[in-house]
Write a structure and sequence with these properties.
2 domains; alpha/beta; 433 residues; 3-stranded antiparallel sheet; Rossmann fold
């Protein structure tokens, strides 16, 4: 009798190679597209001259398609922008990321490169006390501070209050100190972006720029461009917040005595959804612009989730209301840039608008758009849904580009040829019939 010998198990098949990242590669995906269209395709070294010419000709067609699409988009009656933290990041702008803010607020050794982080004793105590789950919520400073604010609504805690005050001080410093007033190149992307969007016809509605950023990048860039910002604050000193100022506008009155004025060029609205580093809460209902508010008075609003949503007070309530209203307007182009769809209270209304507003065009700009929509482990429900809507033919466009690259892609509306102006006017007349 012999023992039965079990044959060795067959070797496991090799794992498929990980797909190459396309982060930062300029390309776009439009309604009912089957693949991304590359603006700067790579040309193999061993390709024939004839095939190279075909690739270059195709790239030229794609660039012209994108230009015409953006041109028609900017001519829509309403242009709305949602700008996230990605617009302030990068080696040129040098703004802090949300993780950087977490690092400096929570850890004892922030900014130390690859060194493992050590959580500060106070942060450890608070995280345990309020029941913040890092595995679920991730290292999100806004989510942590939201939980802290909500916790204080039901129970007093000196440790939690101290962490909030210390974190606000860090946020005020980090979101203010990186802007260098002597560096003319730092805000080039912001200046180009605002310059080209502000050249819309004055009879169209004003550009509405919603941003989750605390910093003053857009305001500083606008000042350097000579643009006028309407931000919901009074024109008198001290400047205080009043929603009525969003209804005001600036016109140029003629010197001929005619009472009818014309809208001033270069005016746009800005809505800072999560507050600003120069907002100070003087009382429960009084918010003023102040260059350097104290941590206790700083009006920084943290987007909470679910039952911890405690931030629906002024000015946040008014700003979010304006955001909802803008998405419901007919003939609207919504440009989302530098936003990762991680804030439910801002992401859900976008999906609702795409489904219910038949006259909404959605343009999403992100250097990792392709990765976020094609990597199962990285994409969230919003990216997946948006990508499916685009493939189904909804007016949804995704552009794989950085904020700076996209600013350069925006066509200059005042550099149109006479033929382009005629085509534009004919299309607009046909659309009003």
């Amino acid at each position: 009798m012999t023992d039965k010998i079990t044959p060795p198990a067959p070797p496991a098949p090799p794992a498929p190679p990980a797909p190459l990242s396309t982060s930062g590669k300029p390309m776009f995906f439009g309604p009912e597209s089957t693949s991304w269209k590359e603006l700067k395709p790579e040309i193999p070294a061993d390709i024939s001259p004839e095939d190279e010419q075909k690739i270059l000709a195709r790239a030229k067609e794609v660039k012209e398609e994108l230009k015409n699409f953006l041109l028609s988009s900017l001519q829509m009656q309403h242009v709305v922008v949602l700008a996230g933290s990605g617009t302030s990041l990068g080696p040129i702008t040098k703004g802090p990321s949300m993780w950087t803010l977490w690092d400096f607020c929570v850890n004892t050794n922030p900014g130390t490169g690859e060194t493992p982080r050590i959580t500060a004793p106070l942060a450890t105590t608070v995280i345990s006390e309020i029941g913040y789950d890092i595995n679920l919520e991730k290292e999100n400073i806004e989510a942590l501070l939201s939980r802290c604010e909500a916790y204080l609504q039901v129970k007093a805690s000196a440790d939690v209050s101290t962490l909030i005050t210390n974190s606000k001080r860090v946020i005020l410093e980090k979101c203010s100190e990186f802007i260098d007033k002597t560096d003319v190149n730092q805000l080039t992307a912001h200046r180009t972006f605002l310059h080209r969007l502000s050249r819309r016809r004055v009879r169209d509605s004003r550009l509405k720029l919603f941003t989750t950023n605390y910093d003053l990048c857009f305001e500083t860039a606008a000042g350097r461009q000579g643009l006028v910002v309407l931000d919901g604050f009074s024109f008198t000193q001290p400047r205080h917040f009043d929603p009525r100022f969003f209804l005001y506008d600036i016109v140029r009155r003629p010197t001929t005595g005619d009472e009818i004025g014309t809208p001033l060029e270069g005016v746009f609205h800005i809505y800072k959804l999560h507050g600003s580093v120069n907002w100070s809460r003087k009382s429960e209902n009084e918010i003023e612009v102040e260059p350097q508010p104290t941590p206790d008075s700083a009006c920084l609003i943290y987007p909470a989730k679910g039952k911890y949503q405690q931030s629906y007070v002024q000015p946040h309530l008014e700003l979010v209301s304006q955001y909802f209203s803008a998405l419901r307007e007919p003939n609207t182009c919504l440009i989302v840039t530098g936003f990762g769809f991680n804030d439910d209270h801002l992401s859900e209304p976008i999906l609702a608008a795409v489904r219910t507003n038949p006259h909404l065009r959605l343009i999403i700009v992100n250097p990792s758009s392709d990765d976020l929509t094609s990597r199962p482990k990285e994409k969230n429900k919003y990216w997946e849904t948006i990508f499916n809507l685009a493939k189904q033919g909804e007016d949804v466009w995704l552009i794989n580009a950085t904020f700076g690259d996209f600013a350069e892609m925006i066509p200059d509306l005042k550099s149109l040829t006479p033929a382009q102006r005629l085509t534009r006017d004919i299309k607009q007349m046909a659309g009003t019939q």
